[in-house]
Request: fold
Amino acid sequence: MIVISAADQTAASSIATNMRREDLNEIQAIGVPDPHEALCKGMAQSKPECYVASVKEVPIAMFGVVPFDDEPKFGSIWLLGTDQIKEVPISFLKKSRKVLPAIIEPYEMVCNVVDKRNEVHIKWIKWLGFSFIRETICGPENRPFYEFARLN
Reply:
C-alpha cells in the first residue's frame, strides 16, 4: 500500500540514490545534473507542501508544485521517482489522482514540461487529466519536451 506524507531529507537522499534512469535523463536534459539537488530544490520550493510516496516505508517518488515567482497563482508541478513506481502502477496512479486536488488547490493553473522520452511521466500526466499543449526544445541538450497544463 502506498502512503503519501510530507517529504524530508531522508526521502530525498533515498530517491536521489535510486532514481529512475528516465528521471535522471530528464533532469540532466533540463540542466540539473545532480538528482539530490533537484529533489532538495523541489522540496524547498513546493507549496503548500512537498510530498513523498512510500511503499513499506521505502520512498518511491517525491512530488510537489512550485509557484511561479512572477505569478504565484500559477505553479509548476513535478515528480521524480525510483523504478519501484513500476512495481505498484495502479496503486500509484490511484493515490496520485486522490491527492492531486490538495496539491493544486492554491493554484489557478499548474503546468510544466516533460521529456518526450519519459513514458512513465507522460502516462502519469495524462492519468491526472493534464492537457498537452505543444512540443518544444528545452535545456542545454536541446531535447524535445512536451508542455502540459491543467486549469484548477
In short: The longest strand covers residues 58-67. The first helix runs from residue 9 to 17.
